[in-house]
Amino acid sequence: MPTTANAAHALGDVTASDSTLRRFLHGLPGVDTVGLEARAASLGTRSIKTTAKAYAIDLAISMVDLTTLEGADTPGKVRALGAKAVRPDPTDRTTPTTAAVCVYPDMVAVAKEAVAGSGVKVASVATAFPAGRAALGVKLADVRDAVAAGADEIDMVIDRGAFLAGNYMKVYDEIIAVKEASGAARLKVIFETGELSTYDNIRRASWLGMLAGADFIKTSTGKVAVNATPANTLLMLEAVRDFRAQTGVQVGVKPAGGIRTTKDAIKFLVLVNETAGEDWLDNHWFRFGASSLLNDLLMQRQKLATGRYSGPDYVTVD
Amino acid sequence: MSEKTEKTEQRRLSVFKTYKLYVGGKFPRSESGRVYEVTDSKGEWLANAPLSSRKDARDAVVAARKAFGGWSGATAYNRGQILYRVAEMLEGRKDQFVREVADAEGLSKSKAAVQVDAAIDRWVWYAGWTDKIAQVVGGGNPVAGPFFNLSTPEPTGVVVVLAPQKSSFLGLVSVVAPVIATGNTVIVIASEKSPLPALSLGEVLATSDLPGGVVNVLSGKTAEIATPLAAHQDVNAIDLAGADDVLAKELEIAAADNLKRVVRPQAVDNADYFANPGIERLTAFLETKTVWHPTGALGASGSSY
Question: Among candidates B214, B107, B210, B267, which has minimal Cα distance to B116?
């Protein structure tokens, strides 16, 4: 697997200065809004049934970053979430585990203990999530804290204010600094696409994040009105595909927020398969940031197994 | 002038009504896109009605479950007011229902009008029961101990109702109104042959302050829709008023999986829907909650609680 150092090599001159970076990002082809949305919508009409559906449901379960990011999170709730991630459906032991649990940095230690020995990873949001409005020193301390507590993955937010003001180099440097502070933990970079206003901006942010060494690019925090949509995820999938073609470096994608039903999840998997390709159909390269999605996936899984519709009484209340 | 009016009337094309389902307060077509032909008692085409699939049934359960919290949590008085409002709206559209019932059941206009009047009166009757049923089936229990012991009726939950096959409107009202009066939400499968009055009832309910999802109306093949609903784990009860013996048995078996409450009235289509219905249909979908409240000598604070 090529490392990020190669990326820096292939497109090294792009990040040499503020002006070269700006020229590169603004030189990216503009996004055809109508075409993008039409493509996302048409891929959403694929009919996935029977064995293909069973495969898709299990794959989707294995890609879930089971998330709780509330002010009211308690150690008990995080432990319950960890238990659910390890064994999503206690009545059916063939159910795969989820990819990770995603919590605030102060809950990492609790989550780590809850999923110990299961292979489920612990992801932590950091860098003054969700607004990201703090000094760099504070953000880095936040990251180091989470890593020290044992986080396997760090979900950072970019400085949208700087990005929208056109201060790309600041955003770039910040991601580099966070990447360094994350050490061995994989870094997911959240763009908060709902705040970036245009598809062109989402494309630029994707490239900016990948140039800076993101292991994953992630749509949103789940804390604003517009979260992951098929269109913005499709756009980001195109970006990771093109990035690998140019640099040989593969970057993961994580849509987050607003994905609640199995139907939605399967639509996203179709997007992945048709855009980035099969290489991304793995929880190392594609994730769902979600909380209520898992219950719907489990209910659909039970439906396929038993032939009768399940109900919310047969899954946990989170 | 009058000549001109006449000419315009001659040229006017008839406006056919598209009958649609009523699910979650909206009027969707069947997810499957299918329809079937509904004929009157003489076999003449009346309209196309949606031929619901099991996915429509599933969506209806989701809508009914979503509406349950709000509807069961509403005060009994408020539910009564809303049900009375439904009767008011029915009264205003009486002509339409008389026409639909006459077509469906092969009755004369006047006989159909008697049916519709009875149905509206029945709705008012059940509206009055919402805040009285608790006094009849609940109350304080004399127990041998220092407890204040209290039983109250609570709604069962999401109820599937197979509407009577022959009595397309009076029978329908007689099975739907008592279920929602006590705070349940309902998915009603309209009479297979004569679904039009039931689908029109949806239009009345949509304009009577009844929250969306409390009543969901599906039309189509009764057996096709009822089977997945009887097996559905998120349905709490099923009323087999419109099922024949063979179907009823099959549904009872399917419903046993999650211990659904099953109501299987005898000799349904010979039921006399004009007779005083009593409160059996109200109590059929009620659970009794009993609370034991300790009592004893008053403490220093002046309260034993």
Answer: B107
B-chain residue closest to A312, CA distance: B234
- pLDDT of A285 over the 70 cut: yes
Measure in Å the smallest separation between the Cα of A102 and chain B Cα atoms: 28
pLDDT tens figures, B135-172: 999 999 999 988 899 999 999 999 999 999 999 999 99
| Structure confidence at residue A300 as a pLDDT band (50, 70, 90) | very high
Whole-angstrom Cα distance, residue B254 to residue B258? 9
Binary contact (A309, B257; C-beta < 8 A): no
Residue A218 among the catalytic residues: yes
State the average pLDDT for chain B: 91
Q: What is the value of pTM for the model shown? A: 0.88
Burial class for B305, CB neighbours closer than 10 Å (0-12, 13-18, 19+): exposed
B231 touches chain A (CB under 8 A): yes
pLDDT score at B275: 85
Instruction: Collect all residues with Cβ–Cβ distance below 8 Å to A318 and sequence separation of at least 6.
Output: A68, A77, A80, A81, A84, A291, A292, A295
Count the neighbouring beta carbons within 10 Å of the beta carbon of residue A113: 14
Q: Does B63 touch chain A (CB under 8 A)?
A: no
How distant, in Å, are the alpha carbons of A56, A102, A226, B158 from that of A258? 19, 16, 8, 27
Domains recognised in chain A with CATH numbers: 11-49+120-291 (3.20.20.70)
The predicted structure's pLDDT at residue B267: 47
CATH numbers and ranges of domains, chain B: 21-38+45-294 (3.40.605.10)
